[in-house]
Amino acid sequence: MRHVPGVVGDDPFYVDTFGDNWRSHFLEQKFEAIDPIQFCENGILPVDWVDLPRNRTRTKRFFRDFTDFQLGRHALTATFRGPSGDRSLLTLTSDVSEKRWPSAKQEFVAAIGVIHPFLHRAVLKLRFQIDDVILIRLTPREKECLVWAAHGHTSKKIGENLGLTPATVNFFIDAAVNKLSATNRAHAAAKAVALGLIAPPR
Question: Scanning 62, 66, 92, 120, which has its CA 20 to 30 A from the CA of 140?
Fold first, then answer.
C-alpha cells in the first residue's frame, strides 16, 4: 500500500505470505529495484505476470527465482485506488497447469474484484486507524443513481425511475465516479458497495 494520507514514505505497508526465505532472498538480491509488481500500479485492470516485461537479466532472474521458490507458476496483480490517493496492489498466485490457468485467471479476476476493496479498507483501518468511508461523501442523489447503476440500468431507465433526465443522471454518476476515484460507473458502484456506501444489488 502506498500514498496513505498522513503517512510519510513511499512504501508504508507491505505484507506477503511467501515466507522468510523468499523475503530474505528478495532483499539480498535487491529485487525491490526491479520488482515487476511496480509495472501494475498505474493499470486499471488486473495484470497477468506473463504480460510483464522480462527484457532485463535481473528481471528474468526474479521470475525464475520466484518459480524456483515454488511461490507459483502464475500470478495476477490488481491495483485499488482509495478515496484520498491511497493505492494498494494485491497479487494472487497459483500453481495450476498452463491448460487450467486461463479459467483459473477468470476466477482470480472475480475474486480480486470482491476481496481487494475489503482488504484495502481493513489495512487502512487496522494499520493506520483511517476510516476511508468518512473520506467519501456521496449525496443522496448520487447514491440513488449508483444503486440503480449497480443493478445494470441505463441512464435513461434510471432517469425514468427517479424522475430525472438522462443527462442529470449522468451528472450524478460522474460525480460519484470522481469521488470514488473509479474508472467507470460499474467500478464506482462496486467500490460504493465495498465501502458500505450503498447496499449490494439483490
Answer: 120
